[in-house]
């Protein structure tokens, strides 16, 4: 069958990962530095790339929300130093995550990791600015785990997959450090008090915390860990994961709580 004349006159272009239209190469802004992450974002058409709601100016210094945040002000005990989120969880991002998370669109994996890289690079930039030194280092990357039932239904943990790709790009170990002992339901539908009660004892160490010694090496600074998740709603789950991880690492390695710094790295902020 003869091809249309237009197909003969121009080379075939890969489809946009979001909308499926031809991805015309355009030298538009791509707000990440790593070449693999940039290449993944360049797989989007100009329209879809421009529509990504990046959180360029966090208003809350703790959770990275672009507006003021009452949850952070009310949280008496915080186990994370701070959290940074890549994008706002608007209708387009909700649909994109659903395609990856529930419909198993694996071709979106590197794109999702590339968007998560925006949050990672912001964390690095803020730490470097505070220390007035070079790029900060992290001992490993981990992710909020799924309950066994959810993992069996879905077949994969979306936060873990994104975080593992990012860790590989930036030359960091990925460690499946946490286990979810039970399913707790959607935290956003519960009262703050109910969330705190439900989450107690939900997580435990899934990896021998004493193995951290081999990752620390001769580092004289704090132990720094990146904790990834897909969506930040109230922060209760992320904070409970960080608390469990810090306590396990300190108990196994004779470290003080202050010696372990955990940073939240989130794909989207609701």
Question: How would you characterize this protein structure?
Answer:
This protein has 270 residues and is α/β, with parallel strands linked by helices. It has one domain (53-269). It contains eleven helices and six strands. The protein has helices at 5-9, 35-41, 46-50, 70-74, 91-101, 109-131, 148-154, 158-169, 192-199, 212-216, 236-253, and strands at residues 83-88, 140-143, 178-180, 203-205, 223-232, 260-269. Helix 11 (236-253) links the parallel strand 5 and strand 6 (260-269). Helix 2 (35-41) packs across helix 6 (109-131) and helix 6 packs across helix 8 (158-169). The longest helix has 23 residues, at 109-131. The protein is globular. It starts with a helix and ends with a strand.
